[in-house]
Structures are given as structure tokens and as C-alpha cells.
Design a protein that fits this description.
There is one protein chain. The chain is an alpha+beta fold. Helices cover 27% and strands 24% of the residues. It is built from eleven helices and 18 strands. Helix 4 crosses helix 6 and helix 8 packs across helix 9. It is elongated and about 90 Å long. The N and C termini lie far apart (80 Å).
Length: 384
């Protein structure tokens, strides 16, 4: 039997060193620190009170803290509701005070609360994050929030604004990321919140107890392109002639003569001609027959001076331009209500993609005989 070279043995026993991917090497930043929110008072000589705060006492479905601590928490932070000799806190307010105001809780307190309310951790995280920019956030069930939508989770005041003297800036709802979206309920709530002169805010909680925040509002989708009403009789006649003499293609038609096509918002110039998609052919024919439908979304947007291009590359129905494609980027990525995302996870994907390419994601609804466009955008606390 041949003797094995000692060099071979050493090489065989060397540890395997796996190559570092180029993607990891190129990263020059540290990942953000994720808050763990530990239970148990954290010792801090600069922040901890010289005299320990009292433990909250059970009071029906709330927890009592006596004055002067209770009065201070209510006056400065809008926490709890006033009762005789103190305040009564909701469980999530107690946990917020534990994390941020050095209020102690019993060892078995959290287990008992979670057993009664499986969503308690999510609610507490939403409440904590919503206040992380220094805002005052008051649960909708507290008496000081009467007059606002009962579907809201909480009402929020801006930093440095008194919840006694000023109006709130927003109302908050929260959902699990896996939850299905009830678009009818969402629209109704948004309208209710806007009518109260507040900004609708949505907090979405994922399975890591991390939160993504959104602000909702309506967009006006209009452009500066010529519309059918701007055409002369001669131009309409040229379009009629062209549309009756086109060559069919798999996705629409091809019109050879570009000079006879006066509508820059319809069709794409290619191969020295104009290429129309099926939806564009349908729109042109409806205009020629004078039977266009105002409930048709494509027709509404073209009549508003917009240019619509397929949104396939962006995971939506259309890219919507307010100016010529050669002069500007599309401000909006549009999804009709009939094709709207079914869950908050899918909304997160759609909005993230849109904002990653500097566009606004909007969903179109036909309501009360007119089109409205709901914009959902990502947002961070501490920003107005």
C-alpha cells in the first residue's frame, strides 16, 4: 500500500472556508437595531425615579394608578381616563408605561393579559410605535376621543401639541399583514376620517412583530394631453379612416400612416406606424360611435388628459402619465378596484415596488357616479 503524502493529509483536514457573496461584501451599513421590548424595569440612574412607582391595581377591565403619578401621566402624555384619586389605564397603556415610564408590573401580569386577549402583544407594539416620534396617541375607547370613528384604534396629536387645546392630526387602525383587505370598509373609514379633518393611518403588524406604517388619501389623476373633445372634425375623420384600415396584431392593431394620427395619448409609434392596444381600439370606436361610458376607467383617465401604458413591469394595471412619455416619468401606478390586492401583504409589495421607482400607488374606485383614486404610501413616525 502506497504511503499517503503528509501534505495531502494536511489539505484534507483543513476546514472548509465558504466564500463570502459579493452582495454581502458590498454592504457598507449595519442593519437597524430591532427593539425587543423586554419585560422588567430597566435600571437607569438618569431616568429611573428616586422613589419606585406603585404597581397598577385591577379596576374592572382597566388598571388604576394613583395621583400624583396618574395625574402627571394623563396631563403630559394623554394616558388613561380620569377616575377618583387617579387614572384608569387600558392594559396596553400599562405596558407602555412599563416600557417608557418605569411603572412596574407583576411577574404573571403579562401572561394573564395575553390569555384574555391574543392580539394584546400586537396592540401594545402598535401603541408603542405610534408614540415613538413623541406624539400623543389616545385609544379610541377613552372618553377624550369621542366624536371620532369608532372603527379607529386610536387618535393622534402632533408632537408639542396639547390634546386638550388642539385638534388631532390623524386616526389610526391596525391589521395583521396576513389579514384580507375589506376595501369597502377601508374606503368608508378613510372617508369618515378625512371628514373629521384627520389623516387616515394604517399600521400593519407582521409575524416578527415589526410594523409598517401607511398614510392614505385621495389623488387627482389628470394630465395635459389633448382629449377627444379637443379634436377638430377633420382630425376625427382621419382617425375614423385609420381605424377602419388597420392591420390586426396579436395585441391590437398597426396603423401605417403616423401623420393621420392626431392623438398622442393613444397608441405607440413603432415601425414607422402607430400600434394600438385592444383597450385603445375599443376606446376609439366608442368615441366614434358616441357611446363612451363614464364608468369606464380607461375612458375616464384618457378624457382627463392622461396617458395610460401597461403596468406589467410594475405589477399593476397601468402606468399613468400626466405628460408626454418622452418628457416625464409616470407619477402613478394604478390598480383598478376589480384587481386590487386581497391582503395587506400584497398591498405592502405593491406600495414598496411603486415607491422604489419613485411613483405613487393608487387604487381606482367608481363611487357616487365618479372615479376616486386612493393612494396608500409608506410613512414613518415623527414626520408630519
Amino acid at each position: 500500500m502506497k504511503q499517503i503524502d503528509s501534505t495531502v493529509i494536511r489539505l484534507y483536514n483543513m476546514p472548509v472556508i465558504r466564500p463570502i457573496s459579493m452582495g454581502r461584501q458590498s454592504r457598507k451599513y449595519n442593519p437597524r437595531t430591532r427593539t425587543r421590548r423586554p419585560v422588567g424595569l430597566q435600571t437607569d440612574a438618569d431616568q429611573s425615579p428616586t422613589k419606585p412607582h406603585p404597581y397598577p391595581l385591577k379596576m374592572d377591565d382597566r388598571w388604576f394608578l394613583p395621583n400624583p403619578l396618574g395625574a402627571r401621566l394623563h396631563q403630559k402624555s394623554g394616558l388613561g381616563m380620569i377616575v377618583e384619586n387617579g387614572i384608569a389605564l387600558l392594559p396596553m397603556e400599562v405596558l407602555f408605561c412599563h416600557w417608557n415610564r418605569h411603572v412596574p408590573i407583576a411577574e404573571d401580569w403579562l401572561d394573564k393579559i395575553i390569555s384574555d386577549d391574543p392580539d394584546f402583544i400586537a396592540k401594545s407594539v402598535v401603541f408603542d410605535v405610534s408614540r415613538s416620534g413623541g406624539e400623543i396617541v389616545i385609544p379610541i375607547v377613552n372618553p377624550t376621543t369621542s366624536g371620532y370613528s369608532k372603527r379607529s384604534f386610536a387618535v393622534k396629536w402632533s408632537r408639542n401639541e396639547s390634546h386638550f387645546k388642539s385638534e388631532p392630526i390623524s386616526q389610526i387602525r391596525w391589521f395583521w399583514a396576513s389579514s384580507n383587505v375589506d376595501w369597502g370598509d377601508l374606503k368608508s373609514w378613510v372617508n369618515e376620517v378625512i371628514s373629521a379633518k384627520c389623516i387616515p393611518e394604517i399600521f400593519v403588524v407582521d409575524d416578527e412583530m415589526d410594523i409598517t406604517m401607511y398614510r392614505l388619501g385621495y389623488e387627482e389623476l389628470t394630465g395635459n394631453q389633448r382629449t377627444w373633445a379637443d379634436l377638430t372634425d377633420q382630425e376625427v375623420s382621419l382617425i375614423n379612416k385609420s381605424i377602419n384600415n388597420f392591420n390586426s396584431t396579436e395585441s391590437g392593431c398597426y396603423i401605417a400612416d403616423t401623420k393621420s394620427w392626431p392623438l398622442t395619448s393613444i397608441g405607440i409609434e413603432h415601425l414607422s406606424g402607430i400600434n394600438l392596444r385592444d383597450e385603445e381600439i375599443k376606446w376609439v370606436k366608442s368615441k366614434l360611435q358616441d357611446n363612451s361610458d363614464k364608468s369606464d376607467l380607461f375612458s375616464h383617465l384618457v378624457d382627463s388628459g392622461c396617458i395610460l401604458r401597461p403596468g406589467f413591469k410594475y405589477g399593476c394595471k397601468w402606468r399613468v402619465y400626466d405628460d408626454e412619455v418622452s418628457k416625464s416619468h409616470a407619477p402613478w401606478l394604478l390598480q383598478p378596484f376589480s384587481e386590487a390586492p386581497e391582503s395587506w401583504e400584497k398591498i405592502c409589495l405593491a406600495v414598496r415596488l411603486a415607491e422604489g421607482v419613485h411613483k405613487k400607488w393608487v387604487c381606482g374606485f367608481f363611487n357616487s357616479d365618479k372615479w376616486k383614486f386612493l393612494n396608500i404610501k409608506r410613512w414613518l413616525p415623527g414626520r408630519v
